[in-house]
Specification:
Elements (H helix, E strand, L loop, with lengths): L2 H17 L4 H43 L1 H7 L1
């Protein structure tokens, strides 16, 4: 299941919990599934955030090494 599918299922769970009058056991099961999906989505976002940070650091290093950053500051 990809991120978008997990988010869609999570939204459906939230909607069901908010709108439907569910038995307690079913509500608890949905809540547990929602927490599981939330944790997985959060982990995926964190991993992608770290990838972006790594790419930005690499890009900054390339700019610093080439001197382009200094040229832009002088203009």
């Amino acid at each position: 299941m990809n991120f978008e599918e997990m988010m869609k299922e999570l939204e459906e769970i939230v909607n069901r919990l908010e709108k439907e009058d569910l038995p307690l056991e079913e509500s608890i099961k949905l809540f547990e599934r929602g927490v599981e999906l939330y944790r997985k989505c959060k982990e995926i976002l964190q991993q992608n955030r770290l990838k972006i940070i790594d790419v930005m650091k690499e890009l900054e290093g390339e700019i610093d090494a080439s001197g382009r950053d200094q040229e832009n500051e002088l203009r």
